[in-house]
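A note from the maintainers: we've had questions about how concatenated examples are separated. There is no special marker in the raw files; a new sequence line simply starts the next protein. For clarity in this README we add a label.
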Amino acid sequence: MDQPGRLHAFDNLRAVMMWLGILLHVAINHTTGPSPLPWRDAQTSPIADLILIFIHAFRMPVFFILAGFFVALLVARRGPRAMLKHRMRRLALPFAIFWPVLIVCTTVLMLVYVHIMARGTVGIDITLLAKKSAGASPFNTMHMWFLYYLIWFCVLTALLAPAWAALPARVHRAVDAAFRALATRWWGVFFLTIPLAIVGSFYRAGVMASSGSFIPQLPEIVHNGLFFVAGLLAHRHQDALFPLLVKTCWHKAIAGLAVFVAVVCAFVVFTSDPTRIPHIEAGIAYLYNLTSWLWSFALIGLFLRYLPSQNRVLRYISESSYWVFLVHMLGTIGFGAMVYSLPLGVMSKMLLNVAATTAVCLLTYQLLVRHTIVGVLLNGSRKPKGAQVVAPLTAGNA
C-alpha cells in the first residue's frame, strides 16, 4: 500500500514539468530574439519564442513551490538537521559528482555545434566559441542552477528554523494570517507579484534570467526564494489551501491565459519599438510574474483535481525525472547540432530533437541508472511496487 496522504499529484506534476524542460531547451535552438547562448539553428520561428516564454512562465516557479513544500514536510517529520542531511545527500552530492562531467560534455557539444554553424562541418575550434561568448566565465552552474539554489535554500531553512521556532506565537499567527490572505484571496497574487516585478524590471524585456553564477545573485534569491517560501508556508496551510486551489484551478488558469496574452502583446511592442511605451519593461515584468503565480497555483490545483493518483507511465517518468533533468541538455544540444544542416522546417527539427532527446534520456535511465548505484545516488533505494515513490528534486522520501 502507498503511504497514506502521499501526494502523487505532485509527483505527476513534477514529471510533466521535467519533460517540458526538454521542449523548452529545444525551443531555445530556434528562437528569433537575442540569446545568451552561442548556438542557434539557422531555422528560427516566433513559435519557438512563444513556447519559450510560455513554459518559462510557470515551470521553475512550480518547481520551487513544490521544493519548498517538501522541505517543510521533511522538517516537520525529521527536524531541520535531518532535513539538511537528506537534502545534501540528494542534491549537493549529485551536483558535485555530475557537474564536472556535464560541463565538459556540454562544452564539447557546444563547440561542435558552433563549428557546424560557422563552417558547415563537424569539428572543434575554441576560438569560435570565444567569439560568441566574449567575457563570459567558462565555469557556471549551467541548467543545474536550480539544484544549486535549492541547496542554498535548504541550508538557509535549516539555519533559520531554530530562530523561527523561537519567535513568539503572535508572530507565527501574523505570518500565517498574511500568507492565508495572499494565497487564498483573489487579490493576493497581485501583491505577491510586486517584489518579482521589481526584480524583473531590471532585466531585458522584464524577464529575469538565471546568470548561472556560482556566486548567489540577490535578484535570483529574491525571485526563486519567494516561490520556495510560498511552498514552505503552503505545507502549514495545505488543509485550507489545497481544496481552494482545486476549486479555483480553472479560474486561475483562464485568468493566467488572459494575462499571458497581454504579455505577448507587450513583448511584440517591446521588440518592435522598446521606447514606444514608457517603462514597458516594468509593465511586462509585472504581468509576466502575475502569470507565473496564477498558473503555478492553477497547475497545483489541476493536478490535485485530475491526477491525484499515479499510473505506470507517470510513475516511470517521475522516477526518471532527476536523471532526465541532469542529462537532457546534452541531448538538446547534440541532436540540435545533428539536425542543423537537414533540409527541414522549424517544427520538424524541434519534433525530431524532442523525440530523440526523450528517447535517449529514458533509454539511458533504464540501462544505466534505474537498477544501478547511480539510481541509488539520485533516487535512493528502490521501493517494491506499490511503495512510496521517490521524489528527489522536490519531495525527498519523507
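[label: protein 2]
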Amino acid sequence: MNRMTRRAVVLALAMALAACGSDEMPVASETVAQGPLTISVRGEGELRSAKPTPLTVPGKNWAQRQVVEMVPEGSLVKKGDVLARFVSPEGEQQLAQAMIDLQRNALARAAKESGLESTQGRVEVDLSRVAVQLGIAQRYADADLSTVARNQVLDAVEDKEYLQVRQGVLQWQRDQSGVRGGAELAVLDAQRATFDMTAKTRRDDMDALELRAPNDGVLLLAANWSGDKPMVGANLRAGFEFGSLPDTSAMEVEIDLPQIEAQGVQAGDAVVLHPLGRPDQRIDSKLSWVASAAKVRNRESPVKFLSMRAPVPAAAIERYRLIPGQRFAASVVLLDAKEAMAVPNVAIEQRDDRHWVQVKQGGDYVAREVTLGVRGTARSQVVKGLKPGDQVRLSQVEVPAPGDDADDKDKTDAEGHEADAAAEGKTA
C-alpha cells in the first residue's frame, strides 16, 4: 500500500470517528439563575416536655424492688395518683435481721449491767468487811503494852498494814469496774444506735413501696441501657430512673440530624414541624438549643447524630391535642433568601479546600473557582464566581484548571499520534 492510500484510509477512519462522536448524549447542565432560595435539612424528632418531672424508684441505698402493679405508659394521671406499687422481699428480711440485732443488743446490755452491779456489790461488801477489820486492828495497834500481850499487839500491827493495802486494792477495783463497765456499756449503746439507724432505714424502705404522681401529666417510662422499660415483675433498684411526668403545657421537639447533614445548623434557625403523617398540622418554630457535639445514638450504628430542640407553642398543643412521645417530621431552614444563586452539589468539585464548577465557554467547559455560602444536602449557595445565565455542567468529568491547558494539549496531541500509528498499523 503506497503513501497516498494510507493517508486516505486514515482520513476515512477519522471521519468515521467524528460521525460516531456526533451520536454522543448531550452534556447535562444547568443554567444559573438568581431568585428566591430556600435550603433546608429534613429530619425526625420526638415530642417531649420542656419541664419534665423525673420519677425515680422509691427507697434509698439502691434497695431492690419488684414491680407488682403499674399504670400503662401514656396514661393521663392526676397529682397524688399511684403510678406503681412495689414489693421488697429482701428489704423485709433485712428489716427482720435489724430487729433481731436490736433485741440481741438489749439483752447484752441488760446482762452487762447486771454483771457490773454484781461486781460492784461484791467489792462494796469486801470494803465494808475490811473497814471493820481495819478498825479492830487499829484499836489493838494503839493499845497499852502493859495491859495486852505482846504477841497480840504484833499481830494487830501486821493486820493493820495488810488491811490498809487490801482496802486500797478494793477501792481501785471498784473504780476500774465502774470505768470498764461504762466503756462496755458505751460500746453497746453505739451498736444500738447503729442498729437503730439500720432498722429505721429498712423501715423507711418498706414504707416507700408506692410511687405517686407529684403533679398532673402524662406518664412516660424511661428505658435502661439495654432499651428495656419498667414492667410488672421487673426487678429495679431504689433511686434508679423510672420515668418522667411531663408538663404538657410546655413541650418541645428533640430533633436528631446526621452529623454530615447538620453542618451550619445553629440556635435561632427556623424550623417547620408537623406530626408524622399529618403535614396539614404545620407548626412554625425556631431552634432553641443545639448540642455542642454529635454522638452515636446506639451501639448498632456508628453514625453520629447532632441533637437540637425546637419549642412547640402552647396554642398548637391545645389545637392539635399533642401528647409527649409523638414523632414529628422537622425541616430546619438553613437559608431563606429572596435573591440568591445556587448550584447542585453534584456540580461542585473540591480541590485543596477550594471549590470549582465547570462553566461553559464557547463549545467547551472550563473550571471556574467559586465561593460558597450555605450548603445543603442537595444544593449550595454561590456567593461569588458565577453570574445569572452561566451554564454549569452537572457531571464530575475532570476539566483542566486554569494553567493546565498546555499539558492537556500535549496529552491530546500524543493521543492523536497514537491513533494515527494504530490506524496505519491496522491498514498495513
